[in-house]
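Hey Z.,

So I finally got round to the iron/sulfur cluster thing we talked about over coffee. Here's the setup:
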Amino acid sequence: MTQTIDSSASLPSAPPTSFLEVRDLHVTFPTDDGMVRSVDGLSFKVERGKTMGIVGESGSGKSVTSQAILGLHNSTRAQVSGQIWLDGEELVGKSSEEIRPLRGNKMAMIFQDPLSSLHPFYTIGDQIVEAYRVHNKVSKDVAKKRAIEMLDRVGIPNAAKRVDDYPHQFSGGMRQRVMIAMALVCDPQLLIADEPTTALDVTVQAQILDLMRDLQKEFNSAIILITHDLGVVAEIADDVTVMYGGRAVEQGSVRDVFYSPQMPYTWGLLASMPRLDRDRKGRLDPIPGNPPSLINLPNGCVFSPRCVYRDRVGAACVTDRPDLTPVSDTHRVRCHIPAEQSQRIWLNELNPNL
Amino acid sequence: MVRYIIRRLLGALAVLFIVSLVTFGLFMVVPVMTGASPAYLYAGKNPSPELIANIEHGLGLDKPIPEQFYMYMKGIVAGRTDLTDGTADGSRPCPAPCFGYSFRYQSPVWDIIKDRFPVTLSITVGAAIIWLSLGIGVGVLSALRRGGFADRASMVFILLFLSLPSYLFAILLLYVFVYGLKWLPPTQYVPLTESPVKWFQALILAWITIGFGSAALYARLTRANMLETMSEDYIRTAVAKGLPRKTVVRKHAMRAALTPILTIAGLDIAFLLGGAIFVEKVFSLPGLGLLFVEAIGKQDLPVIMGLTIVSSLFIVVANIIVDVLYSAVDPRVRLS
Ligand SMILES: Nc1ncnc2c1ncn2[C@@H]1O[C@H](COP(=O)(O)OP(=O)(O)OP(=O)(O)O)[C@@H](O)[C@H]1O
Ligand code: SF4
Ligand SMILES: [Mg+2]
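And the result:
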């Protein structure tokens, strides 16, 4: 994991003021078929106490991004470049062994599938105790008390007894709580939650999100919430990054992205968002077509093969890559449609139908 | 747990009963039906009909077949006193467990097996130590250094020993180390209790033959399991917790990757305990495998039968041990 790609050379090297700042992150996997550019120039900032939602279809690079922050990519199989600043410390240039003291301690992660993410052979107590003791010099008994306290905190009933159970003895929602307890056991200042609720039913999903919100208030941690569910983002995020084909295509506050989205892909996501107040028939309006191949990205705008607004712009869409351009202090958009025009399209053509 | 083991043991008894029934059928009944009584085997050339009748009577072969089988089964549990060589004072006592009496060896079958078993046990233990340590060691190492030099070198090792027929390897070893370099004396088995050095010299080539061949297989299996386990989500979780790589590999990956391998090893070891026929023959080690070969050559039916039942006993028992161990390691497995 060394900085090799030229574009990062031009980045400012001064530490940023934000708690977490990702600058021009690239993650590339060399494969037999070619270079898979899973993350291609992604930048964002998260402050403590705030939540950044990252949304995008499957394969847009959300998990690869989060794993890059924890330094989980295998250095022989992934090329990572750019800058990741966590609390004034740059992580991309560091070796795995240098990042290790931060993992699970200053920054922790909740993974998508809690059953496969917990070791089947060890009790959840053992696994939480292990996570605590690797960063805190305490006896096993003290760590176990801590584990029970955390399980209790995340709402596992009868925690003192269940601490000795194995992962397969819990339901999906309870397992996700265990994952959260394990991630929070060292009071991390940055919590990355990679689709923490995807596998869960709606009620449990709401409970888990409430829990994360409460814990955030209590510990003032920064959260990165990865999901393909815009509803979840609207509910608990402060800022949103919409990813497509490994890049950010729209970034802004939740207000910006939900009330004045300016980019056809975001529009598509919003249109396909299930809403309780919408009648069932016309509820889902998925974006036509498939995500791009990350090996051979289309010329011009990466979204152009699927974009129904392409005709309103003309040739630029298939010849020029649009840049991520600020449209306000907080809001940035990657699209050739001029800002006023896209605002009109949103307000007049789309919003009324949603 | 105790109830589970009791049930499994009862099941094992049933299996052994069926095995006995089938072997009994094959070895005792078929010759009678084809008209060639086993008594001819013991009677020398051109026996008189009375001699044959006497021997048949002495062995109980004149009784109805179900009764013969009953006597055989009862003999395993309680021993027998009814066997004779056909003459008036030719009683051949056969204490429990009695698997019949061999007139070829002039001894109860169980005593012969007991006598030969330490040889096979020595072969098995030594070979298993080699193949488990070498196979698992090479497999883990090459998985952790995937694509690197160690991985490639171990691939060569694996391919070599998987494609090299073990009889060729054994004969090669014999010619090089015994006849060529003369590092080892021509093999003559000596019990461990008599001379550890000679015991070792007699066995080392057998260990290497079986050990290296199986090690290649186990290395390939271990490597594949390790690679699969290392890409599991829970390994990623372990890394994300900030655990040192050593802990991730030893505590999280190896435990999961090696569990299925140890179960296979249990069965392989049980199988080998029934006799390593080929290796015992090449290196003249008088174990159960060689006994089996001799018994077939001499048409010594009681010995063949006894060996068949004893080797199936090993396999049945190993199955139970392996299942119980597996459930102790993997909490998802419920014994019921
Ligand atoms: N080790 C790897 N080697 C090659 N390609 C990879 C590797 N890991 C991820 N990718 C590719 O990177 C792309 C982004 O993957 P990522 O897991 O980040 O998607 P995601 O946005 O998290 O999707 P999902 O919503 O399905 O979780 C995918 O196309 C994937 O195939
Ligand atoms: S740049 Fe063109 S193709 Fe891309 S999203 Fe905007 S309108 Fe669609
Ligand atoms: Mg993902």
